[in-house]
Write a structure and sequence with these properties.
Elements (H helix, E strand, L loop, with lengths): L13 H10 L3 E5 L4 E3 L7 E7 L2 E6 L5 E7 L4 E2 L1 H6 L6 E4 L3 E7 L10 H25 L4 H16 L3 E3 L4 H7 L4 H13 L3 E4 L2 E4 L1
Length: 208
């Protein structure tokens, strides 16, 4: 179990991680592909760290369409907000491959024996996720498709401090993230390219 790359355990040695996992009663479990880990309205008293594989967090709209909210990669946390807020989930969590997950129950996290650095790391991760969500809300609030796309790409331009950058999304994932149909997204991107507002090849973009 290699958790040194997980931000939740930054500054911890392997021995310290092992001791901490024992104190919080964490446990590991393996799941097959397309396993639904959580449904909307489920309650949870634990959150997970993906050790191996890939997960999707999805929401189902009023028409029954599934919208990809986020893709969970190895060493990422998921479901922590719902577990700590004691609120029912409004999303589905589905494995996209065989997955190995470290589950962390929340009922031992605030014991006096738990190192406070662990809780600080958890708070920082949640704050970063909230910032990410607020940025997405900003993109989705734009009325026109062109504005949504340019707002999204401008964020990556600022993060990379360069007009040439790579986004960590496939075209379908980008469409899902922006709440757009893939064909509509491709149409608008081509339109912006013809206007010489941007250029792109796969997930590499240039903003002029």
């Amino acid at each position: 179990m290699n958790l040194n790359q997980c931000l939740l355990f930054k500054q911890y040695t392997p021995n310290q991680i092992t001791m901490l996992l024992h104190e919080i009663h964490a446990y590991k479990k393996t799941y097959s592909k397309n396993h639904i880990l959580a449904h909307p309205l489920d309650h949870t008293d634990k959150f997970g760290i993906l050790l191996k594989g890939k997960l999707h967090i999805k929401r189902t709209d009023y028409n029954g369409n599934q919208i990809l909210l986020s893709e969970i990669s190895e060493n990422d946390l998921f479901m922590e907000t719902f577990a700590l807020a004691h609120e029912p989930l409004h999303v589905s969590v589905i494995t996209q491959s065989e997955c190995e997950i470290l589950w962390i129950p929340t009922n031992h996290l605030f014991s006096n024996q738990i190192d406070k650095s662990f809780l600080i790391n958890l708070t920082q991760i949640m704050a970063q996720k909230n910032l990410f969500l607020s940025q997405r809300v900003n993109h989705l609030s734009k009325r026109k498709a062109e504005e949504k796309i340019l707002s999204f790409l401008n964020d990556y331009q600022l993060k990379n401090r360069s007009s040439s950058f790579i986004i960590p999304f496939t075209r379908q994932q980008m469409a899902d993230y922006l709440g757009m149909d893939r064909s509509a997204l491709s149409f608008v991107l081509t339109k912006l390219k013809k206007k010489k507002i941007l250029d792109f090849h796969k997930n590499h973009f240039i903003l002029y």
